[in-house]
Amino acid sequence: MGAKILTNFVLIPMGAPICLENLLAMVVLFRCRRMIPQIKILAIILSLTDFCTGLTLCLPDTIFESCTFKKYLAGPFVVVSLLTITLIFVDRCCSLQFSLRYFNIVTHRRIIAACISVWIFSITLVYFMFHDNESEYGIYCGILYLTPKNPLNIVSRVFVLMILLMNISMYFYLCYTASLRFTKKVGTSSKDTNGIVRKLSVITGFFLVCYSPYVVTQVLQDTVYTSAYTGIVHALSLSLTLLNSAINPCLYVWRFAEVRFQLNFLLWCWNSKKMEKIRHERNSFFATYSISYM
């Protein structure tokens, strides 16, 4: 009964605003022309996964009858988000290590191929995470945290935990490297790269804080789901992942000036004078920004 209340009166109402704000975020990101293309693509992928998460939350459990199949729909989006953050870290590591050759190494085609591979891999991994040897086709229809333990799903969840730990390590490495280089005299491209790293550190750091409890509870799941303590822990870990999906668009607006300008263009599209003022402010901002790095 508690699970039904959580789904129908908490998760479903949260799904609609998450869908709408991330749909707006995708439109705004598509319009951005002054973002690094690789970062733009990965940010759109994050918004897409958050949008799909919200869309999944809007689905009532009754459409799946007696099977709680929703975890197989929402689960891949969680893993895609985690692996997209991994791609962002790898992308920024490449920008720091190969600043002059970065655009030759990390091309559009390779970024898109990596994103497609991440989606395919995530769907497969989630199937293994909730695999049940005793059910038909290995699909487990019970509650998320009561999945029967077997070698396949244990290894899959430990693998996800290892990805999370690798992301945390790269996060601290990038923050340390960016702060170290910021204190030295560096060239234009290095300054620009360090600035992007600092901006992304807020988004990626918030993601890791929100998703870590969920991943840990998946690996160290308690079989006594009916206990009050375990239920609270699982509910909080799930709530944090949803909080991340809701906050991400706000972080884009806060950390990226181009996103703020494009959002204002959309909000004031009916006012030509305001649009012209925003366009002038945008041109002045990026002109000043370019001169400051010369």
Fold blueprint:
Blueprint: H1 2-31, H2 37-57, H3 70-97, H4 102-105, H5 108-129, H6 151-182, H7 188-219, H8 228-255, H9 257-267, H10 272-292
Helix pairs in contact: 1-2, 1-8, 2-3, 2-5, 2-8, 3-5, 3-6, 3-7, 5-6, 6-7, 7-8, 8-9, 9-10
Class per helix and strand makeup: mainly alpha
End-to-end separation: 63 Å
Element order, helices and strands?
Answer: HHHHHHHHHH
Report the CATH C-level class of the largest domain.
Answer: Mainly Alpha
The CATH homologous superfamily of the largest domain is termed Rhodopsin 7-helix transmembrane proteins
User: Helicity range of the residues?
Assistant: over 70%
| Topology-level CATH name of the largest domain | Rhopdopsin 7-helix transmembrane proteins
Mean pLDDT: 79
CATH architecture level-2 label of the largest domain:
Up-down Bundle
Residue share in β-strands: under 5%
- What's the total number of strands? 0
Can you tell me the overall shape? globular
Low-confidence stretches: 185-189, 290-294
Q: Could you tell me the radius of gyration in angstroms?
A: 21 Å
Number of structural units classed as domains: 2
Output the number of helix runs: 10
Instruction: Characterize the main sheet.
Output: none
